[in-house]
What we know:
It is a single chain. Strands 2-1-3 form a three-stranded mixed β-sheet. It is built from five helices and three strands, in the order αββαβααα. By secondary structure, the protein is of the alpha+beta class. The protein has one domain. Pfam families: Auxin_inducible. This is Auxin-induced protein 6B-like.
Amino acid sequence: MNKVIGITQIVRLRQVVRSWKTRSLMTRFSEEPDGPNWHTPPGSVAVYVGLEHSRFVVPTRFLNYPAFVALLDQAEEEFGYQADGAISLPCETGFFRHVINLLEKDEKKFSSLELREFVEMF
C-alpha cells in the first residue's frame, strides 16, 4: 500500500512540475517588485507562499523531500489541483523562508525531515 501511495505522489509531482515548467516557459514577465523581467532558471521551480503570495524559486529536487511533499498535499487539499496555475503553498512566508534557509545551509542533514519536524523546530 505504501508503494502505491509513493508512486501516486511521484506521478502527481511530475504532473505539477511538468505543467508549471510549461507555464513558466510561456510567462517571462512579472509585475512583482523584484523586476519586470524574470524567469525561473532551469532546474528550479517558482512557488508562491502565504497570503501575500511571496515568490520563491527553489530547486526542483526539493519537491521530493518529505516536507515539500506534505506542503504539496496540503496545497492540493486546500486549492485543488490546477494544471494551468502557479504552485501556491499554504504556509506562512517566514516559516517557508526558514525551511529553505536550513536546506540551503545543510541539505543532506535537513532533506529527510518531515513537515511536522520543521514545525517543531520553530
